[in-house]
Amino acid sequence: MTSKITNRIALTVIVLCALVMTATLAALLGYILYHGLSAISLSFLTKDSSSFQAGGGIKNQLWNSFYILFATMLFTVPLGLCGGIYLSEYAKPNKLTQFIRSCVEVLASLPSIVVGMFGLLIFVNYFGWQYSILSGALALTVFNLPVIVRVTEDALQSVPRELREGGLALGVTQWHTIKTIVVPAAFPGILTGIILSAGRVFGESAALLFTAGLSTPNLDFSNWNPMSMTSPLNPFRSAETLSVHIWQVNTAGITPDIQTIANGSSAVLVLCVLGFNLFARMVGKFIDRKLTGKA
Amino acid sequence: MENKSVVIQMQPSPNNEGRSLIQNKKKWTSIFNRNSEWRGKIWIYGSAIVVILSVIAITLFLTVQGLRSFVVDHINVIDFITGTEWYPDRAENPSYGALPFIFGSLTVTILAAILAAPFAIGSALFMTELAPKWGQKVLQPVIEILVGIPSVVYGFIGLSVIVPFMRTHVGGSGFSLLSGALVVGVMILPTITSISADAVRAVSHDLRQASYALGATKWQTIYRVVIPAAKSTLLTAIVLGMARAFGEALAVQMVIGNARNLPNAISDPSATLTTIITLSMGHSTTGSVLNDVLWSLGLVLLIISYGFILLIRFISRRGQIS
Predict the structure, then answer these.
(1) B109, B233, B277, B317: least CB-packed within 10 angstroms?
(2) Which spans are transmembrane here (chain A) (predicted)?
(3) Distance separating alpha carbons of residues A244 and A254, to the nearest angstrom
């Protein structure tokens, strides 16, 4: 009967592992939300951060995070889509394709701080863009590109072969088939992947330390001229994002209410990322329902 | 082939319907406009080139910049890698020993893997073998949310929960290698779990049924059949998690204590390659020796990351053959 007892014990241990993992998540979320939600208020979200006094907000950081996210997506989505289409539809099984696949793999597993250092070297110093939104967005593009390429490739691979054959049989060119038949069929998968990767970009910090900087100039939200230094739209100004702000406050903050700011910012950050996740699921389901015609 | 396809998708322009076909072939610009095959190919090959270029550029520029301290500043490579004293800002006789950071990085990585791997593989087995239907439904979102939580948030929670806990229960300041490993271990938990679950799921059902038919219990089947069959992918999962742990910067920096000496115990404060770069890069001026040495640390980071990538390839290739 020993094997039965071992079986019982081992299975219990496996169940415990799963419980530990779920409990970890529950504890994490519980901690962040319990401590953070009380710190979030309208004034916290809409006030400038202060460097000495208590009561600073995160308005600029929040804006910077979304702005950099938008700029990153502007670069990454077209590039990543085309890269994914190449690997899925055009690439022949040869050395070059293998090399490109290896490159995607390398890009995906490089530490984000290495990407940040590369950004510092090229965009900040060599191109002379200084710590800026543009440098940060380009560094994050390098960081996010492999994700979008993989997502696109996977989504395209799951499109049935018959659809492509149907297009080609009508005498349509390959690119036209891809553009009008294959990509639309793979669209829900691609979109879900893009939104999920947006959550990852939103929370990224190490790659931004040396590219987007640790400070934000005084922003005037009534000035929408993108060339002006005080304009929130200026892509050449330094920009501290929300996640960098959390790090900055915890390691170098000297305001008396560090804990409150960090709690509130973490909660906002986590809520945003959760929002992206939920949104991705909903969009995926919605489009899927539209395309397949299920009620 | 391209020209033929133009013929078929022609949309004749209103002014010269019949002849547009032949004329358009001769006009370069209109071929370019009409024939989206060309434009599409340019886009697609362009982005493939961008991917290749960025990998080459990262490797090349970081290597050139990282070699400066050895070539321009004449620091001995062996001294750099094996030296234990890091006093780059000392006025007389500065020393640049990177061993404490390399040691710290590797220790945090290995400890994190040891902490996370059992729980991760256990959870993966739970959601594939024990409760494939509802376990999957519960754990899949758990994994996705854990992956999504930004690393600074992990660091912040480590700072406000794990560090005080260590201070009262283990002793010392609470900032330690162990705290770093714990934080990173939780971070890589979902990575290892999701890949392990895929690995276990890929094991053929026939194998399991054969094992049950021989009278094996569930655990015997898991331990003797499923795990050996999925071994190489499980290893890949752990190494991928280690690669992620190795590259993590800010979360570790917040809890590890940033000491420059080699730690005597895992409850001592320490530093890693990523944390020292994070801390010092902003303060050093471009072209100074300290700056060059930091780039060399970055190069070490890059080389070890490549090592992880090669290791993963090696493991998965060996798995395919056997």
Answers:
(1) B317
(2) 9-34, 66-87, 99-123, 129-149, 181-202, 261-280
(3) 16
